[in-house]
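FYI - complex with nicotinamide-adenine-dinucleotide, inputs then prediction.
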Amino acid sequence: MMLNNKVVFITGAAQGIGRQIALTMAREGASVIVGDISEQAGDETVSMIKKAHGDALFMALNITNSDSLQTAVDKALAVYGQIDVLVPNASVNARHSFMEISPEEWSRVITINLTGTFYTIRAVLPHMLSQGKGKIIVISSGSAETGSGGGAHYAATKAGQNAMVRNLARDYGPQGITTNAIAPRVIQTEMLDALYPVGAARDNLIQKIPVRRVGQPEDIAELAAFLASDKADYINGQIILVDGGRTYAS
Ligand SMILES: NC(=O)c1ccc[n+]([C@@H]2O[C@H](COP(=O)([O-])OP(=O)(O)OC[C@H]3O[C@@H](n4cnc5c(N)ncnc54)[C@H](O)[C@@H]3O)[C@@H](O)[C@H]2O)c1
């Protein structure tokens, strides 16, 4: 197993891509801290992992509140004594054209996705620095490149995450911490169902993807597990598109 003796902290792990990353990393031997604002669904992720004989702990947290993150990190360290891998995954999305984005909606999305990612990394980085090693894997989006997949506010947060990844890779690589991003496009989750309900719009979308299917959370989770492992030690500062070939197909 690739992640034996590793402790992984994942935000937004109550459903969707985050849940699958939690399940896959637990399968690979990691102890998983399932962080989310949604307690019931977060507990379900933990139950799924335990049912498969893995190790997991739920931590209620809101990534827009740095105190709540610090409390969760302190509790996780009290239980496990280490955090080897951090996956800032929690984000929100909403489909809006530019002029439909009110100042309040702009602030909401920036605060959750971008400031929340900053707070998440800020809560864990001091521990990784004292440990002298760590891996950070941000779940970004192909929207940072294309501007599609939601609205300008969402795409801007994902571009901001990518810049943060490159900054962290430069500044903390020398101290044993690698930082990368996975940039998914069109992965089957509740977020996707809200943006592209099943039907004609979904069928049109699939025709634009060279592999002719939407992605599954497993497509992201297997890469995340590899990036979290020692096998990926030389990969740093990369934004890895996982899109079935769509972005550069036409
Ligand atoms: N699904 C896709 O097609 C797709 C495409 C590109 C990028 N992504 C990215 O992948 C990641 C996961 O997306 P998903 O589709 O699984 O989303 P999702 O909406 O299914 O899950 C998001 C999770 O984040 C949690 N969350 C939201 N706000 C939070 C907060 N303030 N504090 C703590 N937790 C919070 C939610 O409770 C939920 O469990 C996101 O970063 C998203 O931008 C998804």
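The mean pLDDT is 97. Residues 11-12, 14-18, 36-38, 61-64, 89-93, 112, 116, 139, 141, 184-187, 189-192 surround nicotinamide-adenine-dinucleotide (CB under 6 Å).
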